[in-house]
Amino acid sequence: MRIVVDAMGSDNRPGPDVAGAVAAAREWGDQILLVGPEAVVRAELARHDAASLPITVVHAPEVIEMHEHSAAVKSKKEASIRVGMRMVRDGEADAFVSAGNTTAVLASAIFDLGRIRGIKRPALATIYPVAPNPVLLVDNGATADCTPEYLVQFARMGAAYVEHVWGIPNPRVGLVSNGEEADKGNMLVRDTYSLLAASGLNFVGNVEPKEVSRGAADVALVDGFTGNVMLKTTEAVASFLFRFLRRELTDGALNKAGLVLMVPGLLAMLPGLVLLLPSLRRVARRLDYAEYGGALLMGVDGVVIVGHGRSNAKAVKNAVARARQAVECKVLEALRNVAQTPSGGQNEA
């Protein structure tokens, strides 16, 4: 498999991007194509024992900064994002991974790959981290202003992904709203409800965020603005809880004295704590954004994974894993099939 990694994507580029690419090449043995200014990328790559790994550096002299948007994408045709996208378009690579500016990645995907014929707007799909079973959140940031028709297409693409990648037949689709009743929500939600009810999908109705976290649906459907806020709020709360507990347990003389007094008891409990460690690690992994790597940009004619700007090496490696998974499961073909069905939007390019 040939995976393009944008070496100039993350906030702390190129360190995490290159380190994650090296880790992915070492783990799976795929051909990794690192795209960016050659001298910069090679200097960073030299810090790793990567001479024997299947990594190729592809020169891209320009970089799209985090504060730049679609205008920069148009003018910087030799930016790492655009060069990498064209490699996918031209069949030189199977997927593209970037932790760069989401707007820039989206714009480049539309310019250089194009939308799948029949798909009106792209959507970002990622795992919602606080649910007992995997839940796919669609859209979490690609299309902020939606119509009911866009959301129905997002639902179809999300259902196709869940079925092909997670192996869940006839996945449940829930429309995120502020109440379970059909007449709840804003006009977008209410108008979308009636279309989903007649769509032939396994539509389970409106789901409140608390129901999403309980696993009431396999696909949680939202517009890009709401989904992005919902996901970032969830990540922020998880981070806050860890910081809050650490501070409450260690701040102040009484807490520190209490911890000292607890040491004999903790030592006695050590065998039990050791047995609990695997469970504690699973909880920590579930709430760690780096475990999920990035979101699949559905609706464009190529496999594109978009990661957090703050991605570390682990996140970049796992973004490559998401790309590999999408290619192996032939997700792009499944999404093309969605677009070619009359209910999916055939002939509406």
Q: Tell me, what is the CATH class of the largest domain? A: Alpha Beta
How much helical structure, as a percent, in the residues?
Answer: 40-55%
List the uncertain runs: none
User: How many strand segments?
Assistant: 11
Largest sheet: 11 strands, mixed
Question: Which SSEs are present, and which pair or pack?
Answer:
Blueprint: E1 2-6, H1 15-28, E2 31-36, H2 38-45, E3 55-59, H3 70-75, H4 80-89, E4 95-98, H5 102-113, E5 123-127, E6 136-138, H6 148-165, E7 172-176, H7 187-197, E8 202-207, H8 209-212, E9 219-221, H9 224-250, H10 253-268, H11 270-286, E10 295-298, E11 303-306, H12 313-328, H13 331-340
Parallel strand pairs: 1-2, 1-4, 2-3, 4-11, 6-9, 7-8, 7-9
Antiparallel strand pairs: 5-6, 5-10, 10-11
Helix pairs in contact: 1-12, 4-5, 6-7, 6-13
General description of the model:
The protein is an alpha/beta fold. It has 2 domains: 1-119 and 299-329, Isopropylmalate Dehydrogenase; 122-291, Isopropylmalate Dehydrogenase (3-Layer(aba) Sandwich). It has 13 helices and 11 strands. The protein has helices spanning 15-28, 38-45, 70-75, 80-89, 102-113, 148-165, 187-197, 209-212, 224-250, 253-268, 270-286, 313-328, 331-340, and strands at 2-6, 31-36, 55-59, 95-98, 123-127, 136-138, 172-176, 202-207, 219-221, 295-298, 303-306. Strands 3-2-1-4-11-10-5-6-9-7-8 form an 11-stranded mixed sheet, sandwiched between helices. Helix 1 packs across helix 12, helix 4 packs parallel to helix 5 (102-113) and helix 6 (148-165) crosses helix 7 (187-197). The model has no long low-confidence stretch (mean pLDDT 88).
